[in-house]
Structure formats: C-alpha cells, structure tokens
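pasting for ref
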Amino acid sequence: MSEKTSFTAVNGKPSIAVLPMLNAKFLSKFIAALQNILTLTALLIVLPINLAIVLITFLIGQFQKSSIPQSDSPKRILITGGKMTKALQLARSFHAAGHSVVLIETEKYWLTGHRFSKSVDRFYTIPAPKQDPEAFVQALVEIVQREKVDVVVPVTSPIESYYCSVAKPELSKYCEVFHFDVGITQLLDDKFELSQKARSLNLTAPKTYQITNPEQVLDFEFDSSRYILKSIAYNSVHRLDMTKYPLESKEAMAAHLATLPISEDNPWILQEFITGQEYCTHSTVRDGKVRLHCCAKSSAFQVNYEQVEHSAIQAWITTFVEALNLTGQISFDFIESSTGEVYAIECNPRTHSAITMFYNHPEVANAYLGEPLAVEPIQPLPSSKPTYWTYHEVWRFLTGDRSLYRLQTILNGKDAILQASDPLPFLMVHHWQIPLLLLNNLRQLKGWVRIDFNIGKLVEPGGD
C-alpha cells in the first residue's frame, strides 16, 4: 500500500501506520535544521577572532618578500577543483613562480573562498560532470580557448577524476592536460585492478577479492587473516567503516552486509586487513619519473600532514610509475606491517591534500611543468612545518580531545589555508563558503555527516 493510500485510508484521516513515519520525517528535518542553525551560530561567534587573525596576518605579510625565482616563460595555468585547499596551494605555487592562474569549480561551489585569493587571476564555474558530461567538457574547452590556457592541472574529486580523463582528448587539441588517460584512471581508481596490477609487477599488495553480491562474503572461506569491505566507487560515508570480517556469526555478517550497497553495478572488494602504520603519499610524475613526492602518516579522517622519509614506499611508487610510464598526479595509501614490509592498499589518480606540505617550496611549478629541478624528486623542505586546518583542530579540542598533542599541532605547525601573503581565503572559506552551504542545507532541511574545511564542503550521504 502506498503512503498516499495509507494516509487517507481511515475516514480521510492519517492512518496509525503512517504516523510514526511522518513523525520520524519531522524529527529528522528538525534535527537537520537545528544542526545547521547551531553551526551557523558557532561560526558567527568566532567571526571576530577570524577577522583579527586575518588582519594581523595581512600586516605581517606586508613585511615579507617572496624569494621564489620567477619563470622566464610564464604560462597560463588552469586549475580545477577550486573549493579544495589543494587547489589553492597549487594556485599559490604557480603564482609565486610567475605564472597566471585560472581557477575552476562546479556551479554548486561558486561560493568558494579561494576565488578571493591574490593567486587567482580568473575564476569560472562549470556544470557538474556527472549531471551533464558533454556540457562539462564543452565549458572547459571554451574557457581554455578564451583564456589561452597553456596547461590544465586537474584537482579533482573522486568522481571528477574520470570525467577530466574523458575531457583530456578534446582539451589536448589546445593545451597540455596534466592528467591520466581514461584507461589509466579507471585502472588506478579500481582497488581490485590496482591490486592485480601491483602483483603483476612483483610489488606487494594485500589479498583482494572482488565482491558483487553479499552472498559471496557469506560463502567466503576465511583463513587466519582478517578482512574489510571497501567500495570500489568512492563512498564518502562507508569509506570510514572499518568492520573486520569474519564476524562472530553468519547472522551478524548478514546484518552488516544488509547496510552496504553491494551489487553487480556497484562492486566492492574484500581486502586482507594488515595491521600496522598507515601512510598516505602524493607524487607528481612525468614520463614515468617521480618529480615531486611527499609521504605522511595517515588516519581515517586525514587533516594533518607531516613529512616522513620512507625509502621503501618511495621505491614502490618509483617502480610502479616507471612500469606504467605515467604522467599526472597520483596518490597512494600504504600499510607498513610489523615486519617492515609495505603494502599498497589504495590508489587515487589525483592530487592529495598532502601537497599542502609544499607551501614554502620554490620548485613546485617546475616539477609540474617539466622544468629542471635542483634535486629530483623534490620533497617538502626541512624547514616546512606540518600542515593542519585550524577549525578542525578547534573542533577536536571542543569535543573532548584536549591532549597536549592538539596544542602542539597548532604551535608547531602551519594552517594549510592561512598565508601571510594571501590571508583573505582563510576568512572567506570559513565565513562565506561554509556558511552559504549551511544556509542552503537549512533551506532544504538537510543534515550532513561532517564539515570538511579541507575540501570545502559538507560531507553528506550520497554526496559528491
């Protein structure tokens, strides 16, 4: 029986069966509204503090001069993904080297605070690729032609990585596109195919099995290892689920599996869970050579980056990149076991937020453009401080993590958005971009899982 029929089934009055459903919907919308209102109020309260920080930082910036060498042949660089801090970092790096930057975002994020950066010469919005792939490609082509762009450097969400690869052949008629072809992007983005490719190159990777039906997990002959389930397609919510298999019973496993959208059209993997230290990396590669590389310890919700020298991980990446003769930006997640062996558990064919550790490096633009480097690959400078996001650190402190480590993070590190020579984005991201997104969710009575100031959005179930 439909909800409409049930609603009018008893003398034109709501049926008893539907009332709990209506109450649940009302409660859900009420909680969503309250969540947005309280968050907006909190941001309004700290606005004066942010203004003071920006003003003081601006004044300090007036006494600082850039020591980064200017390019002899400045180029016009188009950077996508304008709402994300990593796009801002690259814009600053190219601008500091004397290049001009055109920043792009999808129409939903027209409000990005990064458009106010002094590193950005032009800002455009384009259609979201998933909604209209043809319009997405056409808009990019028109901007590339209008702005006489020399190089496109995509900074993408997981969904947009594929569509930028789709756009590459058309864009390549007018400029260089520093991104992988479609086939490579699909290979790297597929956790199962990545594992198979790594093993074919004699590189270490966990045991991985493709799952298209929950019954495969229930019938799986588990060995002494523990396993976790991962969606092959990016899933902003389920990616944080670290449930270890096998569970205590098949009934428990069936109950958990029922919460996961596993199907032929949405395959997952069952991957061996290896205990150890997890690392994340970013590498900028050209013609099979690693030109820029960084590595940091990682966590489930990564918003802290501190450079770690790890020769085994760097050697793994160097071998993989050379074997596939890659050109573009590639990020990996590794696990180092108790025996010291490193396993690649995931690859993302796109820019990693760890690129923020290069905030003071003078050769980032050269690494991307294929210019000569003093050392190859370049890595974060010894003087580079660990990067963090202030509002994330404050939230952790307010919600109970009042450890000395949180204070040390702020005192010994650097906010990834705040920069003395370019302080305005720090104000506009936190008190323009995010508040406008919250107001839009309030208008629609929609809730969210968390705010990610790093990637400049509200993380929502089924979101982008």
